[in-house]
Amino acid sequence: MSLRRPVTPAKNPFPMARVTVEDCLEREENRFALVVLASTRCRQLMKGVDALVRSKNKAAVTSLREIAAGKVTFNRPSHDAVMEYIKQQKLTYGG
Asked: Which residues contact 72 (CB under 8 A, 6 or more apart)?
C-alpha cells in the first residue's frame, strides 16, 4: 500500500504566447526578414512606441502578434530591407 499523494502540476502564472512563427510566415515568407522585422519592431516597442494590437505580453511577443495580424510590414521589398540591415550591421560591428 502506497501512502504517497498524486502530484498535481502547478499552474503556470506565465502561460505561453499563442503566436507562432508559422502565423508570421503567412505575412513574410523569408525567415531572416521576419527576424529583422520582429527585432526592429521589438526595439521600437521597448522604447515606448504604442503597440498596434492589444497584448499583455512582452515586446518580443507583441511584435510577433503585430506581424501575424498584418499591422507591421516592411515599407519596401523585404530583400532590400534585409540587405540594408546587413549593411548597417557591418558598419556598426565591422566585417
From this structure: 37, 41, 52, 63, 66
Of residues 59, 71, 83, 61, the one with CA closest to residue 28: 71
pTM (predicted TM-score): 0.74
Spatial contact of 59 and 94, defined as CB atoms under 8 Å apart: no
Mean pLDDT by runs of 10 across the 95 residues of the chain is: 62 65 90 94 97 94 95 92 92 86
Nearest to 60 by CA among 25, 88, 34: 34
Q: Is residue 36 part of a domain?
A: yes
Host domain of residue 61: 21-93
Domain total for the chain? Answer: 1
